[in-house]
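thread: overnight batch results

M.L. [08:02]
morning all. the overnight job finished for the chain we discussed friday. pasting input first so we're all looking at the same thing
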Amino acid sequence: MPTITRDQVRVPMDVLPEARETYIDNYMKATQGTGRLMLFACDQKIEHLNKDFYGEGIDIADADPEHLFRIGSQGVCGVLAGQRGLIAQYAADYPDINYLVKMNSKTNLVSGKQDDPYSPQMYQLDAVLAMRDAGVNVVGVGYTIYLGSEYESTMLAEAGELIAEAHANGLITVMWIYPRGKAVADEKSPETIAGAAGVAVCLGSDFVKVNPPHATDDKTQFENLAIASTAAGRCGLVCAGGSTVDAETFLTQLHNQIHIGGAKGNATGRNIHQRSLDEAVRLTKAISAITLADASVEEAMAIFNGEKDFSL
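M.L. [08:03]
and the structure it wrote out:
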C-alpha cells in the first residue's frame, strides 16, 4: 500500500504559514495518507438533474439524495464532492465524511448548440469557511472549467482566485477541466486532454479531473493518459468515471489508468451511486483497494463480490 508521511506532503507556496498544518491535515485526509485521491462525485443532481438518479437500470435507493451520504459513510472514500447546500443539509448526520465543496455547477438544459458552456461560481469561499467553522468536515473545494468555451477566460479567472483563497485557508483544490464548446472539435483528443492537465497545474490546483483521452493509431488510451499525467506535473490527475458499466470492466479500466496512465486516483459518481446501498458500498471498497492499496483487479473483484472485506 503506497503511503506518505506528513513531511512528504508538498505544500504549495500559496498556503499561508498559519494554514500549513491545516493543509497537510486536509491533504492526508483526502488521500487517506497515500497521496492518491478516491473522489466520490455527487454533484450530478445539478449537472444532470434527475436523469442520473431515477430510471431504468438505476436502483430505486438513488432517488433519495441521502443515498449518497449513506454510501459515503459506510463505504471507503477519500472525499465526497457535492454542492455546498447539499452537504449542509446532510452533514450533521454524517459528520465523519471528508467533504469537498463543488463551487460551481450548471444544468444540462442549455445545449452546446444553443450556447457555449459556462458554469459560474455559486457562492463565495467565505460561505464554505463558515460551514467549516460550524463543524462540517470540509477538506477542499472544486470547480469546473470548460476549456475552449468562449467563456473560458471568466472561468479561469474564477478558478485561479478560488485556488489562491482556498490554499491560503488550508483547503485542497480539485479542478474539473473538460474541453467543450463550439471551438473544440474533439473533446477527448490526447493533445487537448494533456493541455487541460497542464492548465490545472498552472492554476496551482492539487488535483485535476479529466475525461480519459481516446486511443490513437499508435497508442492506447492509457498510454495517451500517461502523457496527460506527465503534463499535469505536481497536480495529481484523476479520471472521470463516466456512465455505469459492469464492475469488472470499470475496475480494469481504473487499474490501467493508475498503473499505465499514471493517474493519481479516480473520481467516480454514477458507477457507484446508481447501485443499491450494499453494492455501492462494496464497489467503493473495491475501487479504494485499487486506488489506495494497489490491489489487483482480481483482489478488487473479490472485495466487490463480498468474498473479502477492505478497510483502511
